[in-house]
Every structure is written in C-alpha cells, then in structure tokens.
C-alpha cells in the first residue's frame, strides 16, 4: 500500500494546505480528502478524520495530527526530513499537539478558511 495522508476536503484551509503539500513537498504519499477515501480499507473512521489529519502506510504505521505531518515531511526527504524529525522531538512534539488543536479549532479564521470550516461534518452535510 502506498502511504496515504488524509485531510478534510470540505475545509478550505485544509485544502489550501493539501494543495501546498502537493505543489511543494515531494512526498511519495497520496494526499487525499477523507471524503473520497476508502476509510475502511485504510483502517480509519470518519471520526478519526474529523479530529485530525491522518497518515497511514504499509508498515503499518498510523498517525494523526502533527505526528502525521511529521511522517509526511520525513517521507519527502532532504530538508523536509529534517523538519519532520524535529517535529518528532519530545519538546517540540509536546508543543505541537496544542498548537495543532488551536489551528484546527480556528481554521475558519485562517487564510483560505471559510465559515464552513468551523462546522462539524454533520452540519456541513446539511449545507
């Protein structure tokens, strides 16, 4: 299985970040919105994907949030690998989760974000 990085395709901020990854970060992973992923095959649930970005590979490694971002960066090699390794260092990792949660909770206010980014998936489905 090719590594897969799963994000929220209904969130404009997340999609902007995924577009950046696809343009600028030479990862081997598929970068895929969870709404178009076979979640069962990946061993993920909708709830997993609503809570954080996900990384799945064939080792099988499963990671979420900043841990998933670290693995994506390490997969990209070169300077990206260094950034991903740094993100996995204990003091940085300890700070990364609260920072990730803050960004996730405020993504509707960030560049590329829209009001729909702040709604839970069940409410977005009604739009």
Describe what you observe in this structure.
With 127 residues, this protein is of the alpha+beta class. The chain has one domain. The protein has seven helices and four strands. It has helices spanning 12-24, 39-42, 46-51, 65-75, 78-87, 90-106, 121-124, and strands at residues 4-7, 30-33, 54-56, 62-64. It has a four-stranded mixed sheet. The longest helix is centred in the C-terminal third of the chain and has 17 residues, at 90-106. The protein is globular and about 35 Å long. The chain starts with a strand and ends with a helix. InterPro entries: DCC1-like (IPR007263). Pfam families: DCC1-like (PF04134). This is Thiol-disulfide oxidoreductase. GO terms for molecular function: protein-disulfide reductase activity.
Secondary structure tally: strands: 4
Q: Compute the average pLDDT.
A: 90
Gross geometry: globular
Strand content: 5-15%
Helical content class? 40-55%
* Oligomerization: single chain
**Main beta sheet:** 4 strands, mixed
Low-confidence stretches: none
Number of helices: 7
Total domain units: 1
Compute the separation of the termini in Å.
34 Å
Trace the largest sheet across and list its strands: 2-1-3-4
- SSE topology string: EHEHHEEHHHH
Structural class: alpha+beta
Radius of gyration: 14 Å
Pfam family, one: DCC1-like
InterPro entries: DCC1-like
GO molecular function, one term: protein-disulfide reductase activity
Protein name: Thiol-disulfide oxidoreductase
